[in-house]
Amino acid sequence: MMKNRKTSPKSVQTLSKALGIAAVSSLCAISANAADPKWDTSAGLGLTLTEGNSQTVLASANIETKGNWNDYAVTLGATATYGEQQTVKNNEIFKLFGQYDRKVSEKFYVFGRADYMHDAVADIEYRFKLNPGFGWHVLKNDRMAFDVEAGPGYVFQKLGSVSDSFATLRIGDRFSYKISKTARVWQSAEFIPAVEDFGNYIVAAEIGIEAQLTEKMSLRSVLQDDYTAKPAVGRKANDIRLITGVNYKF
């Protein structure tokens, strides 16, 4: 566990000002670029219950929306998971994220991303990640897309009773493939080490499959893995979840 660090008020003020300027500039650029973006939104629910020799409950909800302009894209999303086994809580996770992409060329783009996470069972009171960077469309066609992203970042978090903040690097990828007109698979992963201590790192990965039931509704299963190399005291480093649910597209 890293020692509790105090971030200077001056550095926080400078970072906040830079983020504010970037956000306002992005919104102005989007407004000037196009009037009516195309928005794609989907929301899902999942529920697993067992009774008898074991009593378990696992409930999940997710929503994601993406707006596309000519040279810009904004993606926003949220997920929540709650679970119990034999009336003992074994899942309580809430995540939010937002990403802004700006096209530089047909192959390259720049982005800004923010993530928030709360995991009561892992004793993560909060983890807030900020990551600007560059992206590369390694593959992009009607059936397949594979992007690689890299850049600096900063993490603010509270594990147990220990508050911490540190500079990071971020390397990530996103992959999706249309198996058919009604089915697809996808994968995403990110590796975020602390600049001053590469042994203190975070890994978040996801792999999923989705099949359409109707034009608007689909069934999907998602395997998620969150790894914290230096977790809160008394907690394990790895958390794996398999979630199955129904999604609806708006």
Number of domain units: 1
Q: What is the CATH superfamily?
A: monomeric porin ompg
Low-confidence parts, pLDDT < 50 over ≥5 residues?
1-9
Oligomer: single chain
Computed Rg: 19 Å
The structural class is mainly beta
Name of the CATH first level? Mainly Beta
User: What is the strand content?
Assistant: over 45%
What order do the SSEs take from the amino end to the carboxyl end, as H and E? HEEEEEEEEEEEE
Please provide the count of β strands.
12
**Beginning-to-end CA distance, first to last residue:** 44 Å
Separate helix tally? 1
CATH topology: Porin
Question: Mind telling me which CATH architecture this is?
Answer: Beta Barrel
If you average the pLDDT, what whole number results? 87
How would you sum up the global shape?
Answer: globular
Helix residue percentage? 10-25%
Largest sheet: 12 strands, antiparallel, barrel
Strand arrangement across the biggest beta sheet: 1-2-3-4-5-6-7-8-9-10-11-12
SSE layout:
Blueprint: H1 9-33, E1 38-50, E2 56-68, E3 72-85, E4 88-103, E5 108-119, E6 124-140, E7 144-159, E8 162-180, E9 183-193, E10 201-212, E11 217-228, E12 238-249
Antiparallel strand pairs: 1-2, 1-12, 2-3, 3-4, 4-5, 5-6, 6-7, 7-8, 8-9, 9-10, 10-11, 11-12
How would you concisely characterize the structure shown here?
The protein is 10% helix and 67% strand. By secondary structure, the protein is mainly β.
Task: Describe the model.
- 10% of the residues lie in helices and 67% in strands.
- The chain is mainly beta and 250 residues long.
- It has one domain (9-249): monomeric porin ompg (Porin).
- Strand 2 and strand 3 form a beta hairpin.
- The longest helix has 25 residues, at 9-33.
- The chain is globular and about 50 Å long.
- The model is unreliable at 1-9 (pLDDT under 50).
